[in-house]
Amino acid sequence: MSGKAGERAMYRILELLRQTDAFVSGEEIGRQLSVSRAAVWKGIRKLRQEGYEIEAVTNRGYRLISPETMYNRQELETGMKTRYMGHPIYFYAETDSTNNRIRQLAVEGAAEGTLAVAEVQTMGRGRRGKQWSSPVGSGAWFSLLLRPDIPPAEASVLTLLGGLAVCRALEDISGMQPVIKWPNDILLNGKKLVGILTEMDCEMSQVHFVVLGIGINVNTKAFPPELEEVATSLFLESGKTFSRKLVVQKTMERLEEYYDIFLAAGGFAPLLDEYRRRCVTLGREVTVLEEKSFLATALDVTPEGELLVRRSDTGEEMVIYSGEVSIRGGV
Description:
The chain is α+β, with helices and mostly antiparallel strands. The chain has helices at 3-18, 26-33, 37-49, 73-77, 98-107, 157-174, 234-238, 244-265, 269-278; strands spanning 53-57, 61-65, 89-92, 115-118, 139-146, 179-181, 185-188, 191-202, 207-217, 285-289, 294-301, 307-311, 317-320, 324-327. The strands form three sheets. Strands 3-4-5-9-8-7-6 form a seven-stranded mixed sheet, sandwiched between helices. The protein has a five-stranded antiparallel sheet with strand order 13-12-11-10-14. Helix 6 packs across helix 9 (269-278). It is elongated and about 80 Å long. The termini are far apart.
């Protein structure tokens, strides 16, 4: 037994072991799955190679230990409750950037909702070309393919929608209350917890696809010296370890919920009040980092996703369409 047949048998064994905390004999596994004892043994060996911890005791059989800590395509698919977000999943043990992988899949015709997840990114990117630190085993690094039927000018609000969904998902999971820094960061206790990078492929009047890239510091225990004052993780803020697969799954659920609202309404307006409540930028003095930076007070977020500010030097009210905004005295 090899190839796809062997993979199917391996995951059927996994599902059988999931169903009980007790030992299951190789003979019983073989009987239920109609495979030989040798095929059972090969399946167990492959599961161990995938990283699953399986206890084996003579005359008792096999038992699966701590499957909730596993992080791979099969684990992400198991328990994914969405209709289309996160279907299908492409999982990479290592890749340059999940945004690059989704862009390639989109060009090849992949459907909306296709998700790329990486254990490690070697060239993870943030805004303005900054590198996003994404070491092994610590966070959730993933990118989602969207194909909205909207004009390119309206696509920028998808960054805000993504931030709102992630913020809500992490609140669901952790009980903590992260906040949004316009337009694309999630903060917890004043430090950066999540980064979002949205990229678009379009013509003058048509969006071909949007790539929504999300990096979440889940169980990171320490950051490089240059980041430790500005970055944090769910673990550092709570002292608890969280399931990364649950983080991805819950984010997909909230993204699907908010995206459906956005499409049905033809815009971001129904989500605007919730975004405003969660946006820590509003009411604060900020530095707008443009070619000539200036100080301003952040007044509001418009239905188009722009930031309305009042300049400190002239008193002029103006909208910021994109770019970097630093909260004075914060991130």
